[in-house]
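User: Could you check the structure of this?
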Amino acid sequence: MLKRKNGSILFTTASSAQRPINLTASFGVAAGALLNYAWLLNTDLKEDNIYAGIVSIAALVTVDKLTTQLFLYFLRSN
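Assistant: Sure, the predicted structure tokens are below.
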């Protein structure tokens, strides 16, 4: 990419980087670090026409109704 002076780098993470909740607090620290790294990388590579960005995915995969209800309870309490 540096040689071509063109390209994109895309990181993905959970939405806990922007909207931390009690249930995902520890992961939110790592996700926040990745978010800041992507911003800094984008700033550094901008002059070479290389974009670095992040996509935060807000989804919940559960196996039962109780887990879903607990997650929604913690989400509302924040």
